[in-house]
């Protein structure tokens, strides 16, 4: 196993030679000094080798097939980066006068125009920094709307049992009570259960369509009508928009609020802690209740009396907006539609090929993603979804999402996205088929994976209960 940077070096080695001090030295008072950092004594060459080695350990969509279900880890075209790194964008300060940033304001306005056309909404706010933040902001907008219409009795948010975990968390953070809606045998919302639960306490329903089983909610018009008839609003989790972009619009399905993941659907960098962008779109009756300030007609409007206020400093992660706008403008209307079609085609092809050996959670044609269940293999062979996922790492494929949605036992959730060619999908089928063969012939070998990584199979229970999150001298 290679060494950490803290374990390298020789006392006295330096990686940089600083010029002599040109001003009088100043020493802080002892009580103001921080503890001396335990930095390694390494040369420039050792530093370069360390970071180069770190970069080679990274598994991202630029390195390997990355079928992380529900996260839409699609390739990020480098032209997006070129646009976002133009000096006219990178050299702008967020406190610059309006007249000096008209180009930036035009980017926001143009992206808003396109996103309203794609989703069927009437306006967007770009403040939210990521998807979960978008959920929270959207729910706070709903809460603000209900409060100003004296609907304080509406405290319940419905969430399907297959939903992303952020949905109920966001609803609770926004001050609502969460009630779970069961799925039916086909993997969709149980409409009759929803109808029985909707009443005068209903604030909203949170739903993604296609849902997290990768299935289109065929009763969506009835679902949104039930909530509206009860006096509530309907919230669209945009995590799975990649399946319907340019084909169907949430606004036409009856949704009142949406959040989008620009760092998923619109091909801007995803993962590594950010930055992300989770703008929220609303129908016309909710526009006054959005976060402020609002950007309209090249002006920044701070005076928004019914707004819920700021959800983030300034106006959002602007560089991500530039990347998303570049992506949308290059593809255009037909290109976005084609993107969704190929995403669904790739997922259905992969689902069909894998169904020869793997059990699908729901026997229905998927949209952009699908869920397999290793329940049978776990019972018969003693191998789990986790074992298969670890085996994929040794064979150069990033694992899919594991153990989600929670209603599927031993789940693997696969989303190939539209950016992968058929050859990559065929290789994934070969690898996953080989892993099942290994499970049958030598399950212990599979349970030992991964064996090619700097850190092998860890004790997951101990890692969760007693995590070591930073290096400390003596822990070598």
From TrEMBL:
GO terms for cellular component: cytosol; glycine cleavage complex. It holds the Pfam family GcvP2_C. It catalyses: N(6)-[(R)-lipoyl]-L-lysyl-[glycine-cleavage complex H protein] + glycine + H(+) = N(6)-[(R)-S(8)-aminomethyldihydrolipoyl]-L-lysyl-[glycine-cleavage complex H protein] + CO2. Its EC number is 1.4.4.2. InterPro entries: Aminotrans_V_dom, GDC-P_C, GDC_P, PyrdxlP-dep_Trfase, PyrdxlP-dep_Trfase_major, PyrdxlP-dep_Trfase_small. Residues 340-434 form the Glycine dehydrogenase C-terminal domain. Keywords: Oxidoreductase, Pyridoxal phosphate. GO terms for molecular function: glycine binding; glycine dehydrogenase (decarboxylating) activity; pyridoxal phosphate binding. The keyword Oxidoreductase applies. Residues 140-271 form the Aminotransferase class V domain. The glycine cleavage system catalyzes the degradation of glycine. The P protein binds the alpha-amino group of glycine through its pyridoxal phosphate cofactor; CO(2) is released and the remaining methylamine moiety is then transferred to the lipoamide cofactor of the H protein. This is glycine dehydrogenase (aminomethyl-transferring). It comes from Holdemania filiformis. The lineage of its organism: Bacteria, Bacillati, Bacillota, Erysipelotrichia, Erysipelotrichales.
